[in-house]
Amino acid sequence: RREGSELWILYATAMVGFPLLVIVAARPQYMSPRYFLVGIALFQLLLAGFLARAWRVGPRGRAIVVVALVLVVSGNIRNLTEFWNTGRGGYGEAVRLIAERNPKASVGSNNDLTRLMIDYYADIEPGAAGVRYKSVEERPIGGWDWWVERRLSNTAVPPAEITDELGTRYLLERSYPHFWLSGVVWHLYARHEDESSGVHRLNGRQHSSAQAANTGLRAVLGEDRAQQSEASPTAWGRRTGSVSDGST
Length: 248
Fold this sequence. Notes:
This protein is an alpha/beta fold. 45% of the residues lie in helices and 13% in strands. Strand 5 (169-176) and strand 6 (185-191) form a beta hairpin. The two termini are 37 Å apart. Mean pLDDT is 77; it is low at 195-248.
């Protein structure tokens, strides 16, 4: 802090005070980097001022500046390389796959924000105009054709199979990772079809009982959908395989 300067109030508020306020007030389940973007930008200004003064000190100060710049550039190269290779996520690729298998497919998800991505890419991807997102309230009899499990962690292993409250089984088709600073992971599940008849099984339930059970399914998913939290774990269904997602 320089004598007479009040910039320290700005730095302290943005870099320490605001993030602490978010943590205490919102208590987010996932500590997203976006909570710290303003503080990070101001930290760069603070670092630049420190390095400028160090440069004027002499050879030792200039050596510190060179080392700091090498570290900053190296970190940015690593992040940009990962972003170039991974991108924000494979949403368009996932919608293309869905459309190739079934141009009129219905898609569900553990987070209704997925609707925005499905609708967007269904409009711009060739042959995908018939792909439609269906919420829990809109759940088709027999289940969705595809299910998107929306997650934040690239490292967690998704379960190979998930089963909803009506006994509808979904098998993991493909996973689409994302750059850790932007986007979300999509684990894409395809509805399991009866190999003998090609007709999806409802475990012997009649349509009327399936519709009644949808009410219970909505209740199970209600909290997750109401919060629309990216990190909120999926509440629906029974699972087989690994269930840890590492996002909380």
